[in-house]
């Protein structure tokens, strides 16, 4: 049976409802701190991948809370950081594909900003939504995981072609 809520909240669920916090949006500063925390924690050569997922995300969360950019924000739980990172990672990877496509279609004289705008349009065409994580993409784009595969392939091919 479903319990009915009374004006006094005497259905026994009022304490549980008070504990639930309102959903808080992530700011650009929080995203930036999370990206930094993930990058630094994932590149730890001492611990590397010899840890369980929960331990890894607790370390990311601790690093995140140590960032000065988020010192005035309420703390985030480790699983909240993991959920946000999952979204950032997915969207940035999708945008990297669009950026690679735009890079391949770029003409001589176009700047990185021109290519970014073209990639932004490709993203919108493909996903019917605007790419809003450009601050995260700019922080991640030069990391090995997000570097263009096409640029790496082109460099390898040019080395082979000059050697022959």
UniProtKB/TrEMBL annotation:
Q: Which organism is it from?
A: Microthlaspi erraticum
> Which InterPro entries does this entry report, sorted A to Z?
SANT/Myb
Describe the location of the Myb-like domain by residue ranges.
Answer: 18-89
Superkingdom, taxonomy of origin: Eukaryota
Q: Which PANTHER family does the record cross-reference, listed alphabetically?
A: GLYCINE-RICH PROTEIN-RELATED, PTHR45023
Provide the protein name.
Myb-like domain-containing protein
């Amino acid at each position: 049976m479903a319990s009915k809520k009374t004006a006094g909240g005497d259905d026994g669920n009022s304490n549980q409802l008070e504990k639930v916090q309102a959903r808080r949006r992530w700011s650009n500063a929080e995203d930036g701190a999370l990206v930094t925390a993930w990058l630094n924690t994932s590149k730890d050569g001492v611990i590397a991948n010899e840890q369980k997922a929960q331990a890894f995300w607790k370390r990311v969360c601790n690093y995140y809370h140590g960032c000065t950019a988020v010192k005035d924000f309420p703390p985030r739980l480790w699983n909240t950081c993991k959920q946000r990172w999952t979204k950032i990672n997915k969207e940035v990877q999708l945008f990297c594909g669009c950026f690679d496509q735009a890079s391949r279609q770029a003409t001589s004289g176009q700047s990185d900003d021109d290519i970014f705008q073209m990639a932004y349009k490709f993203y919108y065409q493909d996903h019917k939504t605007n790419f809003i994580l450009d601050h995260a993409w700019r922080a991640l784009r030069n990391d090995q995981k997000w570097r263009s595969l096409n640029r790496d392939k082109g460099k390898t091919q040019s080395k082979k072609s000059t050697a022959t």
